Amino acid sequence: MGSDYDVIVVGFGAAGAAAAIEAADRGARVLVLDRGYGGGATALSGGIIYAGGGTQEQRDGGYPDTVENLRAYLKQEVGDAVGDETLDRFCAQSPHLIEWLKDQGVEFRGGKVSSYKTSYPTDDFYLYYSGNEKAHPYVEYAAPAPRGHRVLARGMKSGKVLFERLSASAKAKGVTVVPLARVHELIKDDGRVVGVRYRVLDRTHPHATRHAALTRATAKLGTWMPQMVKGAAAEVERVWATGAVDAEAHAPSVILAAGGFIYNRDWVTSHAPQFEKISPLGTAGDDGAGIALGLAAGGKTNKMGNVAAWRFLAPPSAFLEGLTVGADGRRIANEDLYGATHSNVLMRQFGGTGWAIYDAATWRKIKSQIVTQTQLFQRLQLIYLFTTGHRRSATLDGLARKNGIDPAGLRRTVDEYNDGLARGTGDPARKDRDLCAPMRTGPFYSIDISAASSMFYPVPGLTLGGLVVDEGTGEVAHRDGGTVAGLYAAGRTAVGICSNSYVSGLSLSDCIFSGRRAGAHAAGGR
After folding, report:
1. FAD-dependent oxidoreductase 2 FAD-binding domain location, by residue (predicted)?
2. Residue 223's pLDDT is what?
3. Which of 84, 204, 517, 520 is disulfide-compatible with 474, CB 3.0–4.6 A?
4. Closest to 287 (Cα-Cα) out of 41, 8, 39
């Protein structure tokens, strides 16, 4: 069977683009098939790249970091998601990863870092502490360093700009990109993957322009409030189905980089039932199609029960000065943990039900920080929290009863916290001392941080598990041993660096790392 291309890439987000660029740089003829218009979850993201070990941006700001220090921190996040050799390689390559992105036209800026903890920085800062670097217990293992490298762009355009630069680089290197193409079958010859069968929207279809307009209009809103664009999404699907035609392409290597499976609710229920109530974060393409293709070819999966759920408390940073509790009044965890880390405890140990509790002084402090610490999209959510999204009572017992929290349990948690501060021993949960203040003066306030609290205050999330791969090459591991010849996986279609624990920027970094790994090996000796 003849080959039309040397490498076929299924999916055109960060992982797919990195794979295509790397393969093209090695002389391969590359075809990319994407079910959308390119970008995937990458284009909708905050455009954060987690990198350290002494990047130029870290040095520009005077923030010392070493590869060894980066590894010591990441080992706590990564655990057994990948082997030690892979983590060593990822960390050693980390400073170069930023330089490689610059070679593709992506811009970064170092310098000053915000003095406050945030889930996403304002446009004054493009380097920040994007994970658990300063929080217990992680700070016990490595010296804190800012490693969240935000792509240079205004507002929430960093992810969009990141993908635009990667896409332009790939196309400039001769990569052929076909949008609106859904791969439904891998072609095999004598056990080896040699191509794909797919359906693609005929661009001459009378409603092709409408399809593009609806997709653009609903993409970002659908990430945060999918229920609000349900009708438009159904129309997009209908147009594609009526105008799609059959096609196939052949190549000795196929790379699956089609995202995760958070939009496949049946899979979420089956693999991660604790996370059923969260909102999907990504695109409709994150339906597990790439993983399913790998399984059909003989692959196997791992870490499918791991999900990153995002209940960020900050900004403003004073939100972290409150106490988070479950229905029994017990403390959930130290509030200065990264949002997804804190949420993992909330989801797995408290059934996804919890509240953040504040006294009057902290509530006033939160409001005073809004202008200087938040972006527009964050302020829209704050409007809800400061109007109908909170409850108030003159006493802690009254607040507990209003929320259905055990009053005695809440009082015990607050007393233990206040006593620790008064004695000088600090917070029993070991929150950063700079974020601790006694909780004494009413009125008291609560915010429901539960997974299903409100459509205006959702808990979005993404899946972290996927196909098991050979960590040296990116080839899909066969369930009976060895690998599936000719088949690779990268990004959230595969198990990777962030498959146990997610912090901002780590998934995109892994997408670039694993995409380049697969692209290099798939291109062979060219």
Report:
1. 6-496
2. 59
3. 517
4. 41
CA dist 87 and 284 (Å) reads: 31
- Please tell me the predicted confidence (pLDDT) of residue 1: 46
DSSP 13: S
Which of these CATH numbers, 3.60.21.10, 3.20.20.10, 3.50.50.60, 1.10.3880.10, describes 7-44+158-308+461-495+505-525? 3.50.50.60
Q: What tokens were used for 48?
A: 């954060």
**Alpha-carbon gap, residue 336 to 319, rounded angstroms:** 9
As given in the structure block, the two tokens for residue 257 are 């980089």
| Cross-strand partners of 148 | 50, 128
Which residue do the tokens 């209940």 mark?
Answer: 311
> How many angstroms separate the CA atoms of 268 and 277, rounded?
10
Other CB atoms within a 10 A radius of the CB of residue 237 amount to 12
Q: Is it true that the peptide bond before 144 is cis, omega within 30 degrees of 0?
A: no
* 10-residue averages of pLDDT along the chain (526 residues): 85 99 98 97 97 98 98 99 99 99 98 93 97 98 98 97 99 98 98 97 76 70 63 78 92 99 98 95 95 99 98 97 99 99 98 98 98 93 96 98 99 98 97 97 98 87 99 99 98 99 99 99 81
Which among 308, 314, 312, 300 is positioned nearest to 468, based on CA atoms? 300
